[in-house]
Give the backbone structure.
Amino acid sequence: MPSEGPESLAAGVLQTPAPGLRRLIAPNPSPFTYTGTCTYIVGEGETAIVDPGPDDDAHLRGLLAATAGERVAYIVVTHTHRDHSALTAKLAAATGAEVVGARPHVPRPGAPQGLDAAHDLAYAPARVLAEGDSVTIGEHRLTALATPGHAGNHLAFVWGDALFSGDHVMGWSTSVVAPPDGSMGDYMASLEKLRDRPETIYWPGHGGPVTEPNRYVRGLITHRRQRETAILARLEAGPATIAEIVEKNYAGLAPKLKGAAALSTLAHLEDLLARGLAQRGDGAALAAVYERR
């Protein structure tokens, strides 16, 4: 379960939430980033920085001050959304660290953009990590765990009995899954992958830690299945557009969040289409009429 509220998650304040771990939150609060992106510093003396965050000079200065006199051996990236990786190049230039982690994002030609524009296309790792690959920093080890769904290149990183979960699992909100890069089928499979793992705490890309993560992940799976059931129920009542489904299933949602709800609904519909449970009419995906099959 989540264990920190926004009052303890102020941007620009270096904190030590666990032994061997420091956290500095970037000054990029929004409805999609909560109080800002969490950047983590693992180790002391020799360190790794997990998700350097957005291209923000104040955040860069904060990270350099936090690691002054230490060696930053690695910059580790969970995925290439700009709020997580855009500072990578500047931080690597300033520290000499090796950039490792997620593979670069390659847009699909002709695909609808969705949140693809959120990807950092300048990101260029020295080494892409695959499932099971590790980096060692002093007595600390970070091991990659493939968790696609929120982003096609999303990785989580096992650190002892903890997991850096990026944007795959966050305590303050469910993840946005936005086509064409986001995949609901992959996201659900990644949740199932985490459901019974042994880690006892998650350090996410936004918000405070998730304690009791197995219980929390099971809750996320249930929530998504309920969304799917609601979409199918709406289609049982007759053909509908995504806008009509959102109006029915997200009653009272703030207007500024309806775009994200539409993309999440599209991700569910794409999964239902792939499973033969729905069908789509002609036209662009967000404007098409969908039916129960």
